[in-house]
Amino acid sequence: MSLICVGSIAYDAIETPFGKRERVVGGSAVYVAYAAANFVKPVNLVSIIGNDFDREEIKALEAKGVSFEGVERVKDKKSFFWSGRYHLDMNTRDTLVTDLNVLADFNPVIPDSFQDSEFLMLGNLHPATQISVIRQMKIRPRMIAMDTMNYWISSAIEDLKLVLGMVDLLMVNDAEARELTGDYSLVKAARKIMIMGPKFLIIKKGEHGALLFHGNEVFFAPALPLEDVFDPTGAGDTFAGGFMGHLAHTKDISFENLKTAIIVGSAMASFCVEKFGPERLKEISKPEIDDRIRQFIDLVNFDISLV
Amino acid sequence: MSLICVGSIAYDAIETPFGKRERVVGGSAVYVAYAAANFVKPVNLVSIIGNDFDREEIKALEAKGVSFEGVERVKDKKSFFWSGRYHLDMNTRDTLVTDLNVLADFNPVIPDSFQDSEFLMLGNLHPATQISVIRQMKIRPRMIAMDTMNYWISSAIEDLKLVLGMVDLLMVNDAEARELTGDYSLVKAARKIMIMGPKFLIIKKGEHGALLFHGNEVFFAPALPLEDVFDPTGAGDTFAGGFMGHLAHTKDISFENLKTAIIVGSAMASFCVEKFGPERLKEISKPEIDDRIRQFIDLVNFDISLV
Questions:
Q1: Inter-CA distances, B164 with A212, B125, B145, B177, B194, Å
Q2: Contact, B215 vs B199, CB < 8 A?
């Protein structure tokens, strides 16, 4: 009933209209782990770090129930580093620096002790790396979910198509769904993507919420309207962590429960953007999460009677 | 229990990626009336037309329960004409022609027979014109709702502030809410707008749905994900018509019922975009509307239990 989470661990430098941080822990695996650990333990991390990675950050994650057994530490290299600057609307950003460092040699190895995990989240990595992880699993997990990005759509489409045929669920943003299919209509794009393999598809629309597709069914969850978005970095990965954490906790992969998982993921993402990097996620409590989920219920709940 | 709807009646020339129409009936009042007439009769139209306006279009609206008693016909001038071309994403458009014609002299007069109307929808017009209508009402309607646009925000802000202090509800799109307040955050913008007067605020986000604000409460309704948006012209006015039509029909202006009205409005708007101009609205049936509302329930309904 545990969750494996494969992805990057990084240091980020982030600049938003509200301020800047020169060095904050980041990477998809960190956000997924912080969010998921509120719902399921252990969260089995598979990633790679350099000699510069702070021991205190590892301890903080381990204290939340995150296992570092699958995280390789490279002695003579630095951790993955990313730097970005957000525009005033907070919806667009410029990437200033991408130093792959250790990530350039990332060949994830799944420890034996992780083999009983029934839920697998493949963060945004080269599709060939994602395939290698799936092939290492001796028993196929009940739910394999993956993220990807426009870079792999344009540079590794054949590998991407291969891995899409191996997973249960794809999470992408609206621009990626459009680029992957050539369709502007997300309904049409969704149909094409599900033919490529995944029977579930989540299209993330940032501040405009998220859509879940499955066969002919569709579900929509809004993002919480917030006074301020302080730093959107990691919001999508935090969403994925809350989503997969809820599924791994409940062990229920019905469409109905995936809808609930989307609400949980949206609630977690709404915390993420309130402070820089994963700062807000580090301090979050169960009552706060429950309260936030109640706000989502109030936000969309209506009672209509058709005569 | 009837509804007064003040706004433009026009001929439009529309070009979308799916085709073009040289001359199709349009204007805010026409869309509001076609949508509202499914829920309340009569819909009391207050508008102005030229000598070129087709008698058959009037008959079609009258057959739906729309009264033309408040529509002035000018013998020696043409009807308002608007022409626009939509971009590929269907979210942005260029206005090619705006011939005000009769609309330049529009001084709406509320007929005595309309005086008992408890619901008043003020379409997008000069704020001074909106004020003149409100002042003509001998008994203040229970719900006065208004639309506006960026043009009046920049060219008639003093009159706009005056009318905002006289109405119960403002409907604007996200860009207009931001322009009116200078706040990018819609939550902050909403708070400022409600201080200006209206106790209810609807912020329309097009394909991204609509938000309803009232005091500290907020409700969100998505737009229905559609395979194709054929022509977005009039979708916002159709939303307003379904919304006000439901309120006038139920005579209930509680926050709970406004939520339902937003769903009804969203359902009506989802029909509007399926064909050119108001073509789809002309042919719509009650069972189709009920079925569409059921799709909205399925789209957002989830069942979550907090432990």
A1: 39, 13, 10, 13, 9
A2: yes
Find the length of chain B. 307
Q: Label residue B224 left, alpha or beta by phi (over 0 means left) and psi (-120 to 50 means alpha).
A: beta
Task: Identify the H or E element spanning A173.
Answer: strand A169-173
Task: List the one residue out of B242, B233, B207 whose CA is nearest residue B221.
Answer: B207
Shortest Cα–Cα distance, B208 to chain A (Å): 6
Nearest-5° angle of CA B9, CA B15, CA B17? 140
Q: For every one of its 307 residues, what pLDDT tens digit does chain A have, with 9 covering 90 and above?
A: 699 999 999 999 999 988 999 999 999 999 999 999 999 999 999 999 999 999 999 999 999 999 999 999 999 999 999 999 998 777 789 999 999 999 999 999 999 999 999 999 999 999 999 999 999 999 999 999 999 999 999 999 999 999 999 999 999 999 999 999 999 999 999 999 999 999 999 999 998 999 999 999 999 999 999 988 899 999 999 999 999 999 999 999 999 999 999 999 999 999 999 999 999 999 999 999 999 999 999 999 888 776 4
| CA B46/CA B247 separation, integer angstroms | 19
Q: Assign domain B3-300 to its CATH architecture.
A: 3-Layer(aba) Sandwich (3.40)
Does residue A158 belong to the interface with chain B, where contact is any CB pair within 8 Å?
A: no
Helix (H, G, I), strand (E, B), or coil: what is residue B110?
coil
Task: Report ipTM for this prediction.
Answer: 0.88
Give the closest-approach CA distance of A19 to chain B in angstroms: 17
Residues in B touching A220 (Cβ below 8 Å): 222, 225, 299-300
Residues 197 through 256 of chain A touching chain B, CB cutoff 8 Å: 205, 208-209, 211, 217-222, 225-229, 256
Contact in structure between A136 and A42 (CB atoms under 8 Å): no
Maximum alpha-carbon separation in chain B: 71
What is the C-alpha to C-alpha distance for residues B13 and B32, in angstroms, rounded to an integer? 19
B286: contact with A, CB 8 A cutoff? no
Q: Give me the residue spans of the domains in chain A.
A: 3-300
Beta strands in B87-182 (DSSP E): 93-99, 119-122, 143-147, 169-173
Say whether A209 and B208 touch across the interface (CB within 8 A).
yes
Closest CA to B306 of A289, A199, A64, A125: A289
Give the best residue of A184, A228, A250, A304 to mutate against chain B (max B CB count within 10 A): A304
CA distance linking residue A93 with residue B222, whole number of Å: 26
Would you say A79 and A54 are in contact if contact means Cβ atoms under 8 Å apart? no
Which residues in chain A are contacts of B262 at CB distance < 8 A?
302
Residues B4 and B117 sit within 8 Å (Cβ to Cβ): yes
Closest A-chain CA to B299: A219
Calpha distance B230→B275 (Å, rounded): 6
A interface mutation test: which of B214, B295, B302 has the most A CBs within 10 A?
A: B302
Of A88, A297, A302, the CB nearest to B260: A302
B87, B227, B304, B305: which to substitute to probe chain A, counting the most A Cβ within 10 Å? B304
Question: What's the alpha-carbon Rg for chain A, to the nearest Å?
Answer: 18
Q: Give this prediction's pTM.
A: 0.92
